[in-house]
Every structure is written in C-alpha cells, then in structure tokens.
Amino acid sequence: xxxxxxxxxxxxxxxxxxxxxxxxxxxxxxxxxxxxxxxxxxxxxxxxxxxxxxxxxxxxxxxxxxxxxxxxxxxxxxxxxxxxxxxxxxxxxxxxxxxxxxxxxxxxxxxxxxxxxxxxxxxxxxxxxxxxxxxxxxxxxxxxxxxxxxxxxxxxxxxxxxxxxxxxxxxxxxxxxxxxxxxxxxxxxxxx
Length: 192
Description:
The protein is mainly α.
C-alpha cells in the first residue's frame, strides 16, 4: 500500500517538475528570441546599454564574493603556514563567516555600466562606419582607436560616475582619477 502511494507521489512530483521545466524552457526560448531580436533589431541601443549594466553588476557580485573568500575562507584551504588552532581564532572565524553583500556597491557599478553602454554603442557603430571591413589593417586601426580614445573615456566615466554616486567631492574624484587612471589604463589594456 505504501509503495503504491509512494510511486504515485513520485510520479506526480516528477510530472510536476517536468511541466515546470518545460514551462521554463518555453519562457527561456521566448526571452532569447526577444533578446536576439533586440541585438539585431531596432532595440540595439537598449540591448547594449542593459547588457553593459548587467555585466558590470555581475562582475561586482563575483568580485565581492572573491574578496570575501580570500579574506575569510582561503586560509582554510590554502594555509600559508601551519599554526596551532586557538579558541580566539575560532571566534574570529565564526563571527566573520557570514557573507554580507554590499548592494549599494553593486547598484553603483550597474549604474556606471548603464552610463557606459550608450558610449560603447555609439563609439563602435561610428568606428564601423569610419573603418569598414575586417582585414588586418582595419582591425589594427580599430584597436588603436579603441585603446587611445574609448579606453580613457570609459575609465573616466567609471571613476567620475562612481565618485558622484558615492557622494564624493569634485576634488576627491579628481585626486582619485589622477592617482589611479594611469595604472588602471595599463592593466585594462593588457587584460583585453
């Protein structure tokens, strides 16, 4: 008797899960159609802008998780030296073991990404009109213009935008821009 009820219950649950998965697949297919239409259709600016904002937000979430892991968890898996455990170490570990996400930082990153999106869209559309083609000479020219014009502009949007969103004074924003711009530009160009 119980086995029959269990089989019926398992069948109903699996039928329900398959139904939900099929529904989600239909929704995902529809959303991808809308997104692809937006990528090649009349909503290209919106698609590029939203994509840029979402990528900046996703990158910040990953970075915050990485920072937390390095600070609180990495020593468990990659100890730098062998040490005897003490009760004080356990207290510190248990107090700091809860992850607290900085949602304002992620929001600010997303807003900066939304500010950079239109610049990226128009710059690369203009670049394709000025330098059509995909031959080596054209690609080198596009890369040079990207690194010499777009990269500094995007870094400026990033530092100034974050400074404004974090309610900093113009002097502080200018000081941070002067301090970090050169090194960030070099690192950004080497990681592309």
